Amino acid sequence: MTTDENLMLYTKLAGFRLVVLASRFGCDSDFLRELHDRLIEGLEAAIDRIHILMELERSLLVGDDEFAEYRLGGEAEMFRRFTINLFDELEIDFDTHEYRVNGGNWITALAADSTGVHIDYPEMVSLAEHELGALASIIKDIARETGIPVQAARAGRPRCGGS
Fold it and tell me: Do 27 and 36 touch, CB atoms closer than 8 A?
């Protein structure tokens, strides 16, 4: 991305942060306040990444950092994969057939019984719009305007992955 694109994205993210802060005042439950707080943290993390990208672009233009171009490429690639998770984050290691939720302990997904060996990973279940309240439309707007996905899902019951 160019400096102008980064500046525009920064402005959009900062604006959405203010919208979420304002929306938080209307929350009537601790759950919704927590979701708002997590979205604010995610937006702030995205803003921090944009700051890093802009600083590396400046270093590249000025020429005071010989590794700026290499670092800029890596940071840009990480930012393209950036996602804001509001609820649960599921990591699956398909090589060891293990998974973990929210960075917790690894859990084996292998189960064996008289019918054979089964692999059961949890699946992510998206929160319904009524569970998100006012955040539902804000999340859609963030994804549409910035291209940053916002996931509001919880780890659900394991599904059978086959044997």
Answer: yes
